[in-house]
Every structure is written in structure tokens, then in C-alpha cells.
Amino acid sequence: MGHLMGKPTEVIGAGRTDTGVHAREMWAHFDSENPLDTALLMYRLNAYLHPSIGIDEIRAVAQDAHTRFSATSRSYEYHIHSAKDAFSEPLSWYIRRSLDTDLLDQAAAVMLEFTEFSSFARSNDSANHHFCTLMRSEWVHSASKSVYHVQANRFLRNMVRAMVGTMVEVAEGRYGLDELREVIRSGQRSRAGESAPPQGLFLTRVAYPEEVFHV
Question: What CATH number has the domain spanning 2-68+209-213?
């Protein structure tokens, strides 16, 4: 970024994801002392960046806006498929075992009963607290594919993958919904399921209040 701006320029992203996780939407901010030709800058950035990264828009924001701390919510999707599909393999978790989709749905609903998610945090997580407010937690099923949709004011590192891995274990009949509640209440990561593989996870939206864009 610095060579395009003519001086060292710090770029701050809205968050970070594990290796192998995808993002359909990600925001970042930087400070500029001078007006910018945003169309030209976007063109130059897209010419410079790896083909797997694309800049869709550059816009001015309020001076005190922060791409991470001004966000009001984040949304993720997790994709699984049960029929072998070479095109889905890099973007979805292929599960050969039979899953009870009704139990998946019920497990997703159980997540909405809680606000403390230590059971789905990394054991070495450095967050000050593990409270998150979930606004959405549901599976959408079609043919041989299922997609988990989750939205919250904040997420812990590895949280969604741990939630999905645990819900899959419930759907496989390894333990019931009341046991799932006990796992969450325990606050112990060791009692929850294995984390789902990273390739099925997508960051899909980072939401901001409208006043951020009122300049």
C-alpha cells in the first residue's frame, strides 16, 4: 500500500481468519492526508493484489471510524456437502456420514439460548471475555448440501468452526441436545466437538452503522 500512497501507510482490517477460511466481504481502513482518486487507487490495487483478492469499493468514512471497533455485527456461513463433488471440495466440508438435519436445526437453535461461549474458544484465546450476542443461528438445507448461517456482534477465534464441529456430532447422535447445553454451560473447550475444517467457512458480511459513511 505504501508504494501506491507514496509513503508508509498502515492498513487495518476488520478482523482475521484462520488459514484456509474464505471471505466474501472484508473491510479495511487507512488514513490519508490528501484527497484520493478512489477509482484510480482501486484499479491500481486490483492490478497489484493476488488474483484471490479483489477490491470492490473504496469510500471515505468518518474520521473516528474504525474498521474493527465500529462494526456492529459480523456474519458467517459454513458449508457442508454429503455427495462427493470435486468443485465443492475446496469450499465445503465433505461429510460421508449420515447427518440428521433436524438435529442440526435444533442444535443451531440451542446456540441462541446462550451468550457465553468459552466452550468454543481456543484454549489459549487472549480475549478479555467470551460473551457474544448471537442474532442468527440456523441451517439451510438443499439436496446434498447444508449451510450454517450465524450472525453476532462479535466472534471468538475458531468459534464458528468449533460450533459447527459440535453440532455435527449432535447430528451424528453422539450426544443429545441437553448434553449440548451442558457442554456450553461448562465453559470447557475439551468437552465440545472437534473444529470443522477451515475451507467450509466464509465471512460474508461486516455491518456498520450508517453514520460511519456520513462524511
Answer: 3.30.70.580
Q: What are 49-97's pLDDT values in tens digits?
A: 999 999 999 999 999 999 999 999 999 999 999 999 999 999 999 999 8
Q: Known catalytic residue: 18?
A: yes
In the set 18, 31, 85, 102, the catalytic residue is: 18
Cα separation, 131 vs 156, in Å, equals: 9
The alpha carbon of residue 137 and the mean position of all alpha carbons in its chain are separated, in whole angstroms, by 13
Residues of CATH 3.30.70.660 domain(s) within the chain? 73-205
CA–CA distance from 154 to each of 2, 25, 28, 62, 139 (Å)? 30, 16, 17, 22, 19
**What Å distances lie between residue 210 and 70, 72, 153, CA to CA?**
11, 11, 16
Which residue in this structure is represented by grid cell 475446496? Answer: 90
Q: Beta strand 145-152 with 134-142: parallel, antiparallel or unpaired?
A: antiparallel
Q: Using CA atoms, how far apart are residues 35 and 56, in angstroms rounded to an integer?
A: 19
Beta strands in 32-181 (DSSP E): 73-81, 93-94, 134-142, 145-152
pLDDT in tens, 172-181: 999 999 999 9
φ and ψ at residue 203, rounded to 5 degrees: -80, 120
